[in-house]
């Protein structure tokens, strides 16, 4: 199901587009089976075909290209012509003109520099995801996959890296807020949406490669994902020393007390359901088998990659985004018990693949210091008011508790009968003295 | 196999299919393949590394999509559940156990669907996914006789098993088999295997 629209000119808007799009059509038409495209939507991902067929808005989206290496984008490959009648040079493949300003997405009036005109789509898409750590742009698998895909396609997303899932519009991370205000939180759906918005990294794949994408996605999800979940969330040593530590340090008070535990329970449940067919009595056996299959899966991926730069030649596709996110997480995190990690480190082409993508698409993130607390000035001062406030609050709470207990248990009583008398303990003290006498 | 016998067998072995060799019982496709391989027969010896990787990946695809779709159809589609699955699943048990166990199984399957993200899917979406999967398989097969050209492999066996079942099992609605029938090369593939390997059983149910 072609979530990414091939350049069918009737679809891409009124006819004036036709002649201008011809050169590009020819280019793509030459690829063998461009028509009966296979869907590159990964497996149990809901491919929203109805949405695709329904989308008749010929949006033109110019993505900010100037920064990216030209080799990765074939001429005008992922630029879609919408309704705007640009002058020919704006469409010229090689120079990515700043005339097409990064966030100009409305169908422009005639003119070479459309400018950020407020058309129907005023708000850019916003992506909320977990923030970075361990030398990665994000520590969460799904967030990383979505981020990588967005980088591959140059989609102009406003990325919010947060550590508090409750601040995201859907309550979970990652979440994409589209330009219409709709919130999508399933990673596959996010990627489908990006494809619909014409940021399609799989456009140039042949039918067979699209089928391969589906197949390898299934392989990843069946064999590698359970083990990744197990490595990061279930394996005690890893969980305590790496995962929980990062999340607890990153999350604000008071979430850091209960949220990591809750996430762990959710992951455990998910894992159990994923591997549900196996009988739970043989935990060790099951674990060994899982890891065995994961190692096999890694070896298979390595064999399939061979010495290529990406899985399907020279340009990254959605499969690359997913494989990269799975592998790089395993590779970069400093896991105390990393049997799978050791195996992965032995597969050199996969390691090179990861470092290549990391250096190419996330050059500055790679240099990020892991935990947010470590950056000197900023977060510290941010933390200060919170910490002071928390301290004051806790002292007040303690005092209130003590006074309340004292009052309730009768150690201290406030006598209201005679307002003239000195209140509190003194009154009681005097009463006691009277009694003793 | 009659309903009762099938249910009875699955109770003993835990899972069908299984093979009985000497005093060993090996069940499910994966272990059976391994077992046979250990005895020295393997279908995928002639493949190179990349092809083996592809084969495994496609087998996972089939397991992931087709199997889950079949499960969904059996247990989450109300029409099918009411008419066929409940009766079939509960047939070896006396009343009221047949109802209770059937409901329990249904609940389990629904939970699993939710965990893998299929919980909110409608029947149409599931059929779309099956279509995608078939399209992928069809494109991979192309015009070759088998998935890896001349020789059948485990992937061919798996795909044949699933597709044959889909094509020949009568359900309340035929949409699933219609989806498969859209791909003529897959149909031809099934027929070819049926004729070639099962012809001594006489009846060809794929017409």
From TrEMBL, chain A:
A GO term from the CC aspect: SAM complex
Metaxin glutathione S-transferase domain: residues covered: 294-357
The record's annotation in CDD domains points to: GST_C_Metaxin1_3, GST_N_Metaxin1_like
Q: Which InterPro entries match?
A: Glutathione-S-Trfase_C_sf (IPR036282), Glutathione_S-Trfase (IPR040079), Metaxin_GST (IPR033468), Mito_Protein_Transport_Metaxin (IPR050931), Sam37/metaxin_N (IPR019564)
> Subunit info?
Interacts with MTX2/metaxin-2. Associates with the mitochondrial contact site and cristae organizing system (MICOS) complex, composed of at least MICOS10/MIC10, CHCHD3/MIC19, CHCHD6/MIC25, APOOL/MIC27, IMMT/MIC60, APOO/MIC23/MIC26 and QIL1/MIC13. This complex was also known under the names MINOS or MitOS complex. The MICOS complex associates with mitochondrial outer membrane proteins SAMM50, MTX1 and MTX2 (together described as components of the mitochondrial outer membrane sorting assembly machinery (SAM) complex) and DNAJC11, mitochondrial inner membrane protein TMEM11 and with HSPA9.
Instruction: Give the UniProt family note.
Output: Belongs to the metaxin family.
Protein name (database record) = Metaxin-1
Annotated organism of origin: Prolemur simus
As recorded in Swiss-Prot or TrEMBL, the protein's gene is named MTX1
TrEMBL record, chain B:
Name of the encoding gene: MTX2
Q: Does the keyword Isomerase apply?
A: no
Instruction: Report one GO cellular component.
Output: SAM complex
Membership in a protein family: Belongs to the metaxin family.
Question: What Pfam families is this protein classified in?
Answer: GST_C_6, Tom37
The protein depicted here goes by the name Metaxin-2
Quaternary data: Interacts with MTX1/metaxin-1. Associates with the mitochondrial contact site and cristae organizing system (MICOS) complex, composed of at least MICOS10/MIC10, CHCHD3/MIC19, CHCHD6/MIC25, APOOL/MIC27, IMMT/MIC60, APOO/MIC23/MIC26 and QIL1/MIC13. This complex was also known under the names MINOS or MitOS complex. The MICOS complex associates with mitochondrial outer membrane proteins SAMM50, MTX1 and MTX2 (together described as components of the mitochondrial outer membrane sorting assembly machinery (SAM) complex) and DNAJC11, mitochondrial inner membrane protein TMEM11 and with HSPA9.
Origin, by domain of life?
Eukaryota
Question: Which keywords, in A-to-Z order, does the entry hold?
Answer: Acetylation, Membrane, Mitochondrion, Mitochondrion outer membrane, Protein transport, Transport
Species whose genome carries this gene: Prolemur simus
- Which locations, inside or outside the cell, does it occupy? Mitochondrion outer membrane
The uppermost taxa in this organism's lineage are:
Eukaryota, Metazoa, Chordata, Craniata, Vertebrata
* GO biological process, any: mitochondrion organization
Q: Where is the Metaxin glutathione S-transferase domain?
A: 131-193
What biological function has been recorded for the protein in this entry? Answer: Involved in transport of proteins into the mitochondrion.
Q: Please state every residue range assigned to the domain named Mitochondrial outer membrane transport complex Sam37/metaxin N-terminal.
A: 13-106
